[in-house]
Amino acid sequence: MKRAQLPVVQLLAEEFSLRMEIQRGSENMSQRNKMVVSGAQALVVVLLTISILGCESTLPTNSSSQQINYSTPKYRNANFEWRLDGAADPGSIVRLASDFEFRPSVNKSETSVFAQRSEISSSTFSATNPVTYRFEADVSMTTQISKDVVIFQLYASTPGCAPPMSLRWRSDNTLSFDGDFARRSGSDGCVENVDLKSAMYTGPRLSRTGNEFRLAVEASFDGNGDFVTEVYIDETLVMTGSYVTPEGDTFDRRTSFYMKHGANSPEFWPFVMLSKNPTVLRRTR
Q1: pTM here?
Q2: Candidates 3.30.720.10, 1.10.10.10, 3.40.50.300, 2.60.120.200; correct CATH number of 76-284?
């Protein structure tokens, strides 16, 4: 029977059934679309989570072994030339490429109270502008005797007085500072730098059996002849002090310095000290 010939009731029933199927199809399509959207949203969340976790795994941590300090200023080689102490006994200072070997030598200086000296000296530098110098070397000593020996000095022309700063390897195998303030010509006496003398050493006991350690000494100048100094053993800060010229016209402000490195001791005793690649670095502020 043709559709036009169907009873009206049957036609209405078929029309209603067709509309219901269309509606159910639309609802199914909407549900499928919602499922697709929900699945896409979940995928985006998963991808973002993976990305965040991946970024976190590449960020620097705060652990001591991985800590990164992006603000550390750059040092540059100061290109200092080391000069051998011309008064040292023959064979007491031996240069091996960029390394130096020090052995005992009679101190021939008439003004010094130290009996033994075998040292090298750096180029002279000016400290009339704010600048930091950093001395570095890998140092070892072999001896059966534990007596005081000065292994580094920040030197200036201070006749009759101790240099502005000396680093002493003590008989108990710790480190300490020495230093004097020098008066102007015509003024008597020297004044001990109490701040340097009282500095506390917090590093390890140093070995005299040939074990090597990394020595670094920094001196940060203010441009007026005063400075703050820091000592590092194996890259760890172990001691700090300062040189601040006392007020008054009787004291000289030193603006020209040089460095000394080696072995300078009050007594004469046998030793062999090796310094590998002693280097001076520089940075301006």
Answers
A1: 0.73
A2: 2.60.120.200
